[in-house]
Please model this.
Amino acid sequence: MLNWLPGRPKPDIHTQIAALSRFQDRLPGRSDIRVKLAGLYLHLGEFGKAESVLGQKVCLDSPDALLCHARLARHRGRASIAEGHFYAAQALGSKVALAELGRLLVEQERYEEAVPLCREALATDPGDFVAAMALCRSLIALNQIDELGQWGGACLALGQWNALAPTALAHANQTELLEGIVSPKSSITSMTNIVDADTPGQLFEQLTEHTSRSKLPASNAGKGGGWRISHLLELGIPSVETLFERIKQGIRERALGFDAPTDWHPLHCVPENVGLETWANIFAGDGYEDWHCHPAGWLSGVFYVDVPVSEEGSSPDGQIEFGPLPISGQNDLEAWPKQLIMPQKGALLLFPSYFGHRTYPSQSSRPRISIAFDVVPKTGH
Model:
């Protein structure tokens, strides 16, 4: 039985930026405020604004400041500067600097140097997705496929869960270990008619012009034209609240009934306390999501508010595809076959959060709107 913990109201990113900008004007000597503000701009991909905020006065007095400068330098192509800042942040106790340093080294094809750093980061936090991705890319580049499979198998056998483990096993062709946990037929469920027929129309009107929508964050998988509304369930929209009550009911009825053949299947490890992370995606015709998964989640889902119809009127566009993540640049793997699903207006898809997935552009003048969520394990009551 899942115990749903209430979410805490969070201001949208533009409200946060406005508040921090006011604090910055009133307290120009506070470097921590500049660092937080620059971090939000980095999240949105507005690197010029981030650099302007940080450039008012160089502040390298804390791990957070060093990380912010390092991330900006990395995006600007200043690899040696970024590397120095990451090392300095790690020396000051940053728990994420090693993982980000490993990723930076992989981008420079310095795979042998990246491996021990990533392993050290994962020894501290087995769920560190950035470190895991850098490690797996390095092992593939070094042709150490056995080590790749050993890492993925250890994550499952030892309970050191990392959402990249099934993908690593697929690239290592560990078919037996993957049996039962990557099958779309047993792991992906589609539900229709979970809300009244007029609900999608109400949601369409309420979401397309909502004041909390923002450009697609550069740090997420969304590409092309479109908008995102974060913390959707906490905005007080009645139709959204009704939708998620039905989604919770659907999860109780269907997701907890998945028949997994092995004891370490994540869907068998039902968390006692969970929270919901919710957002809406509003994609223009060329908007889509690149391959990604949801590392923090246990179960994920998407409800289709509106799906454009193709020019010929034959079928809806904007398909969603499931499969392993393309660690090595490709993911056509026998151990984990990909699966295309045609979305339907008013339908709900539920799937394990470790499933890689992407969407295709609709090429329609009408926006493609979906409401997505993660069921995230929580501690406390």
